Amino acid sequence: MRNSNKIPAKGKPIIAVVVDGQTESWYLAMIARNEPDASFRIKPEIPQNKSLVEQYAKVVSLAADYDEVIWIVDFDVILKETREGKRGELGAMRIFMRLKSKLESEYDNVTVIINQPCIEFWLLIHFEYTQAPFENCAGAEGRLKRHLGDYSKTQKYYTREGNDIYLKMKELLPVAIENSKRFGKFDFDNPDRGYTNMHVLFEKLQLIAVD
Q1: Residue 172 belongs to what domain range?
Q2: Exposure string (b/e) for 126-149, b if CB count within 10 Å is 16 or more?
Q3: Parallel, antiparallel, or unpaired for β 41-45 and 110-116?
Q4: For 4-30, what is each residue's pLDDT tens digit?
Q5: Which of 47, 74, 77, 131 is most exposed by smallest CB count within 10 Å?
């Protein structure tokens, strides 16, 4: 679905990226700061209300105005709510599956990226390939610290001038991208497994070649 009332692009087209937390927003800002040759500019969007349905509504709204919209989802919250029986009979995971399917079938300018459990898993696969199951983000963060001992989930750590999170990891980015490609599609029958398809973001920015 396309809308002729899209915001006119001034200079580079803009990718609107919907995320549910500050950590992802800081990471995206550092990509933008360090990759001036990217074919698109990044506009992080953090919805005020972070339920799945409200994030979905934000994605749909942005899809009418921007050439590309990416929805980055941390799966640990979905798994937690599914285990706790929240979101009624359907459960959070089934709701997300329906929303994802609807976006992919109705909007050709929307892409869904999953980090299971969270963005720390994407950072982890800069160092190693693993499908280890993670119940929550703390588990992935702990494993990341085996490789990145000073890691801190703070704005200062992520955005430090000259040593921000993206620059710190950039030399290993090709490793992370190749590891991300190995995962293929998300397996909803085994949702606990570590997973990311963050390489898609870099394809959209045309910072890596598309296979």
Answers
A1: 14-204
A2: bbeeeeeebeebebbbebbeeebe
A3: unpaired
A4: 455 545 578 899 999 988 999 999 999
A5: 131
Task: Tell me the per-residue pLDDT of 47-93, one tens digit each, with 9 for 90 and over.
Answer: 877 789 999 999 999 999 999 999 999 999 899 888 877 655 468 99
- Ramachandran assignment for 88, one of left (phi > 0), alpha (psi -120 to 50 degrees), beta (any other): left
How many domains is the chain partitioned into structurally? 1
DSSP 133: B
Rg for the chain, CA atoms, rounded: 17
In-domain check, residue 2:
no
* Closest to 111 measured CA to CA, from 201, 179, 22, 46: 201
Pure H helices in 117-163: 119-124, 137-144, 155-159
Q: What is the mean pLDDT of residues 85-109?
A: 86
For residue 73, the cross-strand partners are 114
